[in-house]
Amino acid sequence: MTERRRKFYAWGFEDQSATPEEMKPVLDTWHRTFAVDSFDVTAAPTLDTIDMPESKITRFPEAIKDICRTDRYERALHSYGRSFLDSAKMFRGDFRNAPDVVAYPRNEEDVRALIDWAGDIGAAVIPFGGGSSVVGGVNPEINGTYAGVVTIDMWYLNKILEFDPVSRSARVQAGVYGPDLETQLKTHNVTLRHYPQSFELSTLGGWIATRAAGHYATHGTYIDDYVENIRMVSPSGISESRRLPASGAGPSPDRYVMGTEGSVGIITEAWIRVLSRIKYKASKTVTFAEYDQGVEAVRAISQSGLYPANCRLIDALEAKLTGAFDGSRPILVLGYESSHYPVNQLMDLTVDLCREFGGTPVDEKEQGRNSVAGQWRNAFIRGPYYREHMTSRGICRETFETAVCWNNFKELHSSVIETVNAAIKRVTGRAGTVTCRFTHVYPNGPAPYFTFHCLPDRERMGEQCMEIKIAAYDAVMKAGGTITHHHAVGRLHMPWYEKQRPAPIGAAFTAAKKSLDPRSIMNPGVIISEQRGSA
Amino acid sequence: MTERRRKFYAWGFEDQSATPEEMKPVLDTWHRTFAVDSFDVTAAPTLDTIDMPESKITRFPEAIKDICRTDRYERALHSYGRSFLDSAKMFRGDFRNAPDVVAYPRNEEDVRALIDWAGDIGAAVIPFGGGSSVVGGVNPEINGTYAGVVTIDMWYLNKILEFDPVSRSARVQAGVYGPDLETQLKTHNVTLRHYPQSFELSTLGGWIATRAAGHYATHGTYIDDYVENIRMVSPSGISESRRLPASGAGPSPDRYVMGTEGSVGIITEAWIRVLSRIKYKASKTVTFAEYDQGVEAVRAISQSGLYPANCRLIDALEAKLTGAFDGSRPILVLGYESSHYPVNQLMDLTVDLCREFGGTPVDEKEQGRNSVAGQWRNAFIRGPYYREHMTSRGICRETFETAVCWNNFKELHSSVIETVNAAIKRVTGRAGTVTCRFTHVYPNGPAPYFTFHCLPDRERMGEQCMEIKIAAYDAVMKAGGTITHHHAVGRLHMPWYEKQRPAPIGAAFTAAKKSLDPRSIMNPGVIISEQRGSA
Question: Is the pTM of this model over 0.90?
Fold first, then answer.
C-alpha cells in the first residue's frame, strides 16, 4: 500500500541498508568488545516462514474496506516497534501478536470511520506513526477481551495544510515523517529542527502523542513546547484545542493529550511553531580527565543561564565505542545555533566555564562529519540501521534513559552502571559494557541515557535482555529517576510508570480515559492499565 | 488570627496605604482624564455596617475547632478577591456571600481534617492563598446545594522545608507569600524572581493552582516551568508527584494539577527550581513613532532567538496615564539579566533590531526608580493600593488580558479597543480610556494586557463594569485570543472558558474531578461547572 516499502523486521526501508564498508569498523568494534573472531549469523526472517495466525477480522464495511489490509507483509510490519526486544522476537519468527487488520486512512473522516467501526465490533485500535517505538507502544500485546486488533497507520496524512509566516507556524497532518516534514517546511524557508534519533522513521503525531524530545539539549527540549494546538479523533468525538501561543485557562488541554500515547484518541493535526533557518553555528568538543569534572561542568553550564543547543557529555567508553574519541577521556560536545546573531561569544563563555572544571577544548583539524562531534553524530544517526546486524549475530544492544535532579545524579549513575554490569554478568555469564551520555540538561538535573551491550544465550536473547532491563529500571527508580525522559511509557514501562504516577492522579486519568474512550478500545494497556473485560 | 491584619475591603495590610503625597499626582491624572475638578468620596465599608448573614455552620469537631473562625472580620476578609467588581460590591457593603467559616490550618494534617470534615457535612471548600484573585476564584458565590462554605486560608503554611543547593531547588509550603518567600530564599543566596503584580499578596500555592505568570517576558513565563513536583490534599487522598527536572512518562501529573484552581484539592507543598542571584542587568527604553512599528519590532525580537527578561510594549496613552512617558509615543521597556555573564551585548543586539523598525532608544539621564522603566514599575507595583481610592470616588478601573498568535494580533487589538471604547460610551454615557501593553511575548504571539477607566453610575458601578467586560471578552474570543493568559478562570471567566475548552476534554476533566473530588466540594463552579445537586 505504501509506494516505498519499509522493512518489516528491521529499521529503514527495503532499499536502505548499512553498506559493507560502513559495517566493517562496526564489526571490528564488536569483535574487540567481546573478544571473538567471528559471529554465527542468523538469517533475517522471511514473510513465508514467520509464525503468524490468521486474521480474526475478515469482513469490512463498504466505507473502509479499500483501506484495510490483512496481508502478511502489512501485518508483520505492524507487529513490533524497533527495540532489541522486538528485534529478538522478529528474528525468532514470532509474529503471533500480529494485528488482524492494518488500515491506511486517507483523511480524518477515514480515521473517524475506523474508530467507530472498531468500537462497534469491539476491536482494539493501535495508532501507528513511524513504528519506531522502543517501549512496545505499537505492539499488539493485549490482555483484554477484544474481537481483534486494528492498527491504524497514518502514512497518508502527511501534508502541511497551512503556513502562517507572521506567527511562523504551520498546520500539519500527524502522519508526516521527519524528513518529509523538513522538506515541506524548507519551501517556506523555516525548520522545526526536532531531531530525535528516530527522526527518519517517526511522525509528528507520534512525537506529540509520546512527548518526544529532540534536537535541543536545553530550552524547548520536548516537542510539547512547539505545539500550538492539537486536533484529535476520540471515540467520544473530535477534540480541537484553540490555537494559541500560550494560555492560562485551566489545565492545558494539549498538555493533557500529550503523553496519552494513543490511549484516548488519534491525533490527526496540529499547529506547530517553527523557526527561521539557522544562519550561525558554533560547535566545540571539550574533554575532561575525570568524568565527575565533566558532570560538574555541565551542571555549571545548566545553571549559568547559557542555553547551548547541544550539551552532550559522553563517557569515555561510549566515546570509544562510537568511534568519536579514543576512550581515554569523557567528551562534552557543545553547540550553539542562531538564525539571528553570531554565537561564538556564547561558545567562548561556555568553554571558559568548562576550563574552570578542568576541561580542555579539543584542537580540531577535522571539521564537519569527520570532527569528533561529527563522528559521534554519524554513529547516532546510523545506529538504528546496525540493529539487524547485531541481532543476527546474537549481540544484545539496548538502551534506557531517565532524568534526575542533580543531587541524586551521582548515586543514580554509579548504582545503575554497577547494577547493569552485575546483571549482565549474572544473566549472560560474561561481561558486557554499559555506557552513559547526557541527551538533555536542565538547571535542576540532567537526562542520562544508558546503553548496554552483551552476548546473551542465542535462544533466550529477549528474555535475558529483559532480565537486565528490569534490574536497570529498578535501579533508576530507586535512585529517584523517572522511568523515562523521552522514550515514552508504551507497554514496556507500565509497571514502573504506575509506581511513579501518584495514585489519585492515576485514578483521575483513568476516569478521563473512560470519558474519551468509553469502550476502552484505544491502545489498550498503554498509560491506563484497565482493559476491556479486565475490569 | 493573623498577627498583621489584612484590610478586609481593599489591597494590602491595615498598616499600609497610599500616602497623600503618593496620591496627589494620581488624583491629578484622574481629574484630567475625566475633566472633573473633584469627586464625591464614599466612605470605606466598616465591619459593623456591612450586610453579612449569620454563619450557617456553628458546630465544629474537637480536632479543628481551634482553627476555625466565624467572626465578621475573618468572614469579610474572605468574601471577595481584589478586582474592581469585588471592590464595588464591598464599598456597597454587600457581604451576603461571606463564607460561613474561615479555617487556618497549621499543617497538612489540618488541611486533610478540614477537607474530610467539609465532605462529611456537605460543605463547599474554597482554598485561599493571598486572596488576590481578580476573577472570583475565592468568592463564595456557589449555586449547588451545600451546607455552607468553608474557606481554608493557607497563611500558616509559609516555610521553606528543604533546600537543595546542588539542584538549586527548594521544597516550599504553599501558603508562603511572595516577599516572605524571597526573604527566605535570600538566606540561601538564591531567588525565584516570580513577580506577578499580586506578588505582595499572593502565595506559591496560588501561583501554581492558577498558573500565574511572572517576571520573565520570555522563556519560563509561567510558574509552571519552575515546579519540580506538587503535593496536594484531595478529598480522594494525598497526591505527590515524583520530584524531577523533566519527565516524559505519560501526561505530566503536575501540568494537570496546575490550572485546576483548587477544584480537585489543595496544594500543600511543592519543590521549585530557583536561580542564583542576578549579577548583571541591562535595561533600555525604546520609543516608536507608530504603535505598529513597536509591534513589528517586538515580533522580530520574539522570533530572533534573543530572550529578554523584560519586553513590555506600552501604548502611548498607558505610558502617559502611568506617568512613564509623555504620551506622544508608545514605549518598549527592555531588560536583560544574568547571574553569570554581562548582558550588554544582548541588549545592543535588541536595540539594533528595534532601530530596523524605526525605534529610538531614550537617552536616559535618570536611572533606577526615576527612569522611564522605573516610573512604570512603581505605578505597576503601587497600582493595587490605588483601587480603594478609585472605587470610593466612583472611578472604574478594570483590566483583562489574553494571548493570541501574531497573525491575529492587529485585528484583536483594534477590535478590542474599539469595542471597549464603544461599550464604555454606551453603558456609562461618557468616554473613558482603554490602553494596552504586552506582559509577555512568545515567538508565535504576544500576551496583550488591556486596562480601561470609566465613570459608571455610582449606584451600578459593578453592573456597568461587567457589561463592558462582557463586550471585551466576546471581542477577545472572537478575534482568536484566549479568555486568559495568566489571570486564571475563576468564576468570572467560566462561560468563555467552557466555550474555549474542547468539549471532549471538558468532559474528561469533569470525570477526572469526580475521581479526585467525589462529593464535588472543592471550589465549586471553578473550572468544572457541575456542582453538588446541580447535576
Answer: yes
